[in-house]
Design goal:
Blueprint (H helix, E strand, L loop, with lengths): L4 H8 L9 H27 L2 H21 L3 H22 L4 H21 L2 H6 L1 H5 L7 H30 L1 H6 L4 H23 L4 H15 L3 H23 L8 H27 L1
Helix pairs in contact: 1-2, 2-8, 2-10, 2-11, 2-12, 3-4, 3-5, 3-10, 3-11, 4-5, 4-10, 8-10, 11-12, 11-13, 12-13
């Protein structure tokens, strides 16, 4: 296994009580890797109007974990693979079905949730094991999970370098993008696959119930703060990273004692409130 001790040593330098413990270091590293990915993909989700898509993929975690437990497969393998399959199926059906995209997503969403509940209802032990994925717990991230996150982060950075402008172009006008020889279908499938994997990893951290908020809230805040697409991208990363680190710091305080995922989203929502105020003041001055 790759030695990550240097990375955890850097995390231990963060001025927060408890950072001398390995699980806290792993949680901080995981959040620093996850936050930029969810922020950047959240901007693209907002541009593509795919919030419901991410919600459907997030809820497929139940079925992925349940099927993995029944088959004796590690849930950390079965869940992302199942989520990836669901994301690609939704994208395929959107492209080749005459139905509206939200209808297609609604059908797949219903199917994966029903499949998960059907499997869980047959085994009470599985139901107990699923509690972690319902609420999430970033403090349970292992060194192996960090390695997978590092690999995913590398793929994410490469994809954004190659595809960010092309996806922005396609979201504005797919017809014009194709006329300029942008392989829209290829980039859309790659985007759906990457989004599905990031959502699955985020489920481990903040849970199924809050995973969509981790994508949407920073992007919505960034839209209020920024004046350009590039500005929105960097504002989203700032909001997401600061929310993640602040949420972790607050949640482990004895006087707070709240779930880390929920605290992260609450801090992110505070950013959104601030962004609404800033946007309102700006609009009044321009009026």
């Amino acid at each position: 296994m790759i030695d990550l001790s240097w990375l955890f040593h850097l995390a231990s330098l963060f001025p927060l009580d408890g950072m001398d413990m390995r699980f806290m270091q792993q949680a901080l590293v995981a959040l620093v890797l996850l936050a930029p990915m969810t922020a950047a993909l959240g901007v693209q989700v907002v541009c593509y109007r795919m919030a419901f898509f991410s919600d459907a993929v997030g809820h497929s975690a139940f079925a992925g974990v349940a099927i993995g437990l029944v088959l004796g497969v590690n849930p950390h393998i079965s869940m992302p693979l199942f989520g990836l399959a669901v994301g690609l199926i939704i994208m395929f059906m959107q492209r080749f079905s005459a139905l509206p995209s939200d209808t297609v997503i609604g059908v797949v969403f219903s199917a994966v949730v029903a499949a998960g509940l059907a499997v869980v209802s047959r085994n009470n032990t599985i139901a107990r094991d699923l509690q972690q994925f319902l609420y999430g717990d970033i403090l349970t991230m292992t060194e192996t999970d960090i390695l997978w996150l590092l690999a995913l982060f590398a793929v994410f950075v490469l994809f954004q370098i190659v595809a960010f402008n092309r996806l922005l172009y396609a979201s504005t006008s797919g017809i014009i993008a194709r006329a300029h020889r942008v392989p829209v279908a290829l980039f859309e499938y790659l985007f759906a696959a990457l989004l599905a994997l990031v959502v699955m990893f985020s489920v481990w951290g903040v849970g199924v119930l809050l995973v969509t908020a981790m994508l949407i809230v920073p992007a919505a805040s960034a839209r209020n703060f920024a004046r350009s697409a590039g500005g929105m991208f960097w504002w989203a990363i700032l909001v997401s990273l600061s929310s993640a680190v602040t949420g972790l710091a607050l949640s482990v305080q004895p006087w707070m004692g709240t779930a880390t995922g929920a605290t992260i989203i609450l801090v992110s929502c505070a950013w959104f409130v601030a962004s609404v105020v800033v946007s309102s003041v700006r609009n009044e001055r321009q009026a």
